[in-house]
Amino acid sequence: KVSTEDPEMAFCTLANREDLNPEEGSIHHCLYQFTRNEKLTETNKLLCDVCTQRHCGPKNNIKSEKKYVYTNAKKQMLISLAPPILTLHLKRFQHAGFNLQKVNRHIKFPEVIDLAPFCTAKCKNVAEGNTKVLYSLYGVVEHSGTMRSGHYTAYVKMRTMNNHLSDLVLRGQSPQALETEPVKGQWFHISDTHVQAVSASKVLSSQAYLLFYERLL
């Protein structure tokens, strides 16, 4: 839909992606790879209705699938609506022959993340002129063990109320005030019935499986 309305803006983002230079093994690198521009060629060509009609006439006159016209194309997945709560799910398994193997690699993630390089230039709920879409970390789920068994624990931040987030969730209003710092609060590690206060550095060194961020700006 975006590319049909304005092809030149279809692959534009709120902030320049090329300025990122994301570190490999970081959540920024994961997002950069997930939203990269892909070329669809050869067996991945796109079926073009316009080209097909131009060469073969109206669609209802096409009797053979061989008459469909396929063309090279570009594809890119970008965020068109910035969510109040951002949930990032890391793929922590890989194929090892016929088996699945858990990926134990540490992925770096920040307390505050900017989604602007991964948002379309026409992101619906970002105030005009804003070139940042900031989120603050408030929860992490960690898994220890293997693909067959293990244990889930969580890190949760007890924090003050985020009025901007309430406005966004309840009234759909985009945050206007500039907030670049993480929401203040105390982190806790929760394992079954055991709860312990921990530092932010302990949280950031965890082997994250799920990441939960709340929108700041």
UniProtKB/TrEMBL annotation:
<dbReference type="GO" id="GO:0005634">
    <property type="term" value="C:nucleus"/>
</dbReference>
<dbReference type="InterPro" id="IPR018200">
    <property type="entry name" value="USP_CS"/>
</dbReference>
<keyword id="KW-0378">Hydrolase</keyword>
<dbReference type="InterPro" id="IPR028889">
    <property type="entry name" value="USP"/>
</dbReference>
<protein>
    <submittedName>
        <fullName>UBP16 hydrolase</fullName>
    </submittedName>
</protein>
<feature type="domain" description="USP">
    <location>
        <begin position="1"/>
        <end position="216"/>
    </location>
</feature>
<dbReference type="Pfam" id="PF00443">
    <property type="entry name" value="UCH"/>
</dbReference>
<dbReference type="GO" id="GO:0004843">
    <property type="term" value="F:cysteine-type deubiquitinase activity"/>
</dbReference>
<dbReference type="InterPro" id="IPR001394">
    <property type="entry name" value="Peptidase_C19_UCH"/>
</dbReference>
<dbReference type="InterPro" id="IPR050164">
    <property type="entry name" value="Peptidase_C19"/>
</dbReference>
<dbReference type="InterPro" id="IPR038765">
    <property type="entry name" value="Papain-like_cys_pep_sf"/>
</dbReference>
<dbReference type="GO" id="GO:0005829">
    <property type="term" value="C:cytosol"/>
</dbReference>
<dbReference type="GO" id="GO:0016579">
    <property type="term" value="P:protein deubiquitination"/>
</dbReference>
